[in-house]
Amino acid sequence: MLTGKKVLIGITGAIAAYKTLELIRLFKKNNADVKVVVTPNALNFVTKTTIESLSQNPVNIEQFDIKEYKPEHIALTDEADIFVIAPISANTISKITHGVCDNLLTSIFCAFKKPVLIAPCMNTNMWENPAIQENLKILKQRGITIIEPETGFLACGCEGKGRLSDINTIFNAAKEILLPKQILKGKKIIITAGGTKENIDAVRYIGNYSSGKMGIALADSAFKLGAEVVLISTVETKKQYKIINVQTADEMYDAVKNEFSNAYSLIMAAAVSDYRVKNRQTQKIKKDGNSLVIELIENPDILKEMSEIKGENQIVVGFCAESQNLIEYAKEKIQKKGCDYICANDISKKDIGFSSDYNEIYIIDKKSDVYKINKTSKQDAAMKILERIYG
What is the pTM of this model? Predict the structure, then answer.
């Protein structure tokens, strides 16, 4: 089932470390390539020999064990598809939340840019400590998957929440991350990203603050779900799917129209300028002491036009960035544009939206039903949007 998948398992100094041996066995049984990194304290609970026998790979312990001229925390980060830390102690939770890199495991976490899943294990009072709960909240907001501990009899003799979650639960959660359901397999999805730029002269333009992060996250997620992705973007990026780079609203309109006829769906995540300069100057405009008057004309309404020409089985999704009356304006927009869904976000909040790595989304359909995605990473929000609309 997991043939070709590379799994990195982290073990910290918690009493349930011995249970991770069964997790390693499950991954190996499903043909995953498993490597293990442990904190020095973890070896108080499990032995290096046992881990190596089950994983069929050397155990990684030392911070600067250099192989092939690569620092080990970078080498392991590059090759793994997922990092599963189980059990993770209160100590290590606190370290990774605040960027402490004092051992190999925490250094790997700091450099790891792919999915991370953690399964805490600790005394009930430690679990309930406000500092630990705040750290877990921060990690969740950053897109870390957290498998919460179970309630039961603990090794310390207490009864309460803190026992490592069932190993099968941890394995299945990791499997879902590694093998998302291919709900878009074979379907062409067009996604627009970034803010368009409308030239004034040879050096100046009218634009907006869109970073393109949400659109690119949607394209990445659609690709993971099996879609034939076409990303039409004002932001240059290199991906495994087709990318068409544009700059102006007119260029984006032409690109969308050329691709739309055989597409299953269009997601207009880009911030498209409503207006362009009527008489763009080919040379730089020089300051002469007088006021400069720029005449603007309307750009084509890509979302509305594609909604008008879409076929019966095509789905068009718009985005709505507002600074006030978010839901009210979003409901008005979906009726005015004629699209199937609107994803609305509040750009007045400094910690989400433009340029941020996080977002909070409201999905509105034609019936004006509203579904909220709480603040989370844009990668996580993108997957939730796709699963909500197409799942």
Answer: 0.66
